[in-house]
Amino acid sequence: MSTAPSTIVFSGDELQEVDRLKSLYPHSKAAIMPVLWMAQKKWGWLSEDVMKYVATIMDLPYSHVMGVASFYTMYFKKPMGQHHIQVCTNVSCMLRGGVELLEQVKRKLNVANNEATSDGKFSLEEVECMGACGGAPMIAINETFFENMTAEELDRLIAQFQ
User: Fold this and answer.
1) Which of 60, 4, 54, 7 is CA-nearest to residue 34?
2) Nearest to 22 by CA among 34, 11, 13
3) Where are the domains of the chain?
4) Does domain 83-161 fall into CATH 3.40.30.10?
5) Which of 65, 123, 147, 149 has the fewest C-beta atoms lying within 10 Å of its C-beta?
6) How far apart are CA 62 and CA 75, in angstroms?
7) Are 84 and 141 in contact (CB under 8 A)?
């Protein structure tokens, strides 16, 4: 059973934005990704109830919405932390210490990959590539990217958000 906010409804302004997004594409279903992103921003994650709501307002089958949300790792299908830390461990980042940074976060916050801390403040996700190979290793906290990350800088960032 999914847990979700008791009221799952976009505001009038948000519904206007959904309509605007739909109008950008020859087929309105192509707007599913930005609409899911809006929903995740509003409710923090995509519960079954949220995805059903998106399916209704997009006039799409729930299975289509769930399929898109399940395919892309950027959509959270469970509650994540207030500060979502993504650590790249793809080739460039791996070669420059990305795996060690990932292990550092796990130890420091006592959290596993794709899990949130018990207080809900942080979550951790190992990611494959964030498109910043020239600035490896890199992490992101929520939507802010940090390149050329060091262990000391990572400790400083985490302390800043604690």
Assistant:
1) 54
2) 34
3) 12-71, 83-161
4) yes
5) 147
6) 15
7) yes
